[in-house]
Design goal:
The protein is built from nine helices and nine strands. It is of the alpha+beta class and 357 residues long. It folds into two domains: 132 residues, no CATH class; 177 residues, Protein Transport Mog1p, Chain A (3-Layer(aba) Sandwich). The protein has a seven-stranded antiparallel sheet, covered by helices on one side. A two-stranded antiparallel sheet has the order 1-2. Helix 3 runs parallel beside helix 5 and helix 7 packs across helix 8.
Length: 357
Amino acid sequence: MIEKVLGIIFLLSIIIRFFFGIDFDPLVFLSGTVLAFMYLIANWWINKPRQRNVRTISLTLLYGFVSCCLILYIIFQLLFYAGADLLSVLSIFVLIIALGIDLTSSIKKDRVLRRPAFWRLGILTIFVVVLYIVPHDTTIQFTYRDYPGFLKYYRTNKDTIDFVDLRNDYFKNDKGKKDYFTIVDNGDTLSHYLYNRGSKFHFYKNYDFYDKADTGQVLLKKHLLRHVPGEFAFGIRSNVKKVNMYLTFKSRIKPMSSLEQQPEVPFLSEEFDLDSQSEVELIENFVDSSEPPPVKYQIHLATDKVSDDTIAFQEMHYWIHKNNLMISILTYNDKTGRDEMVALMNDVIDTMKNSLE
């Protein structure tokens, strides 16, 4: 009975971790370790053979050892501990030896491996094989899907640092439950943007975050960057709908310059693969001076000439901050996408304000 209870708890812990992430790693480790060492120590009582002799006692203990190693491999593979491959080889090797001895020595005798233990070892072996053949990078990307900052750090350093050391190095500064998006201005870090899976931030996992180091990745057509004055500062882009992006650029200007004297960004037609069946028009162009600093707004709309369907909006914001022309490019094809990105960027701004208070 206790075997079934511990097995169910271990399985549930894996499922919970599958849906809710690495916060449940300790539950997988604890439940799996208890189950593994129960088989190592108590398999004699769990699968007591009908006859007691050197053969049955040795094989029963050996099957318990194999069950323990298989479960430890599952734990090590799921939690990315070192030594998982060694455990898999050891487990399968010992299992083959135990099965060979059991089959060859059970002629005209009862086999030690009975149906409950056979099903247990079969299920564990299938689980081990599946985990073994799934690419390591795929497992990591899925496990840390809510930590885009870590995945970026992993892709950059995976060939030079062991994964466990890499993970510990990244999360050592209280990043176990958070990702931080650093916003830099004039070389000084103003703020860290908090990325969290809580209810308020549920849609943020659908966006990739970029800073100055990612300049070459923010646009699908890199050469279009020449149409935007200055250098890329920070921004986001949807990894679900590539048309949805919110990018901010910064350019030095002459003191006392006005918005009207600054260059404008044209509609980035190539970014949306527009063809001859589409047309672009400027639907809004005005300066809002109701609150400082004044902000110039321009909105272009691209539509299909035949169906009149909306292809994309390109919304431009221009404002001056400390002799810098700040330019935001906000592109989207529906209101929902725009509202999500604006809400996200507003949280970035609020975080910056709070950090400076």
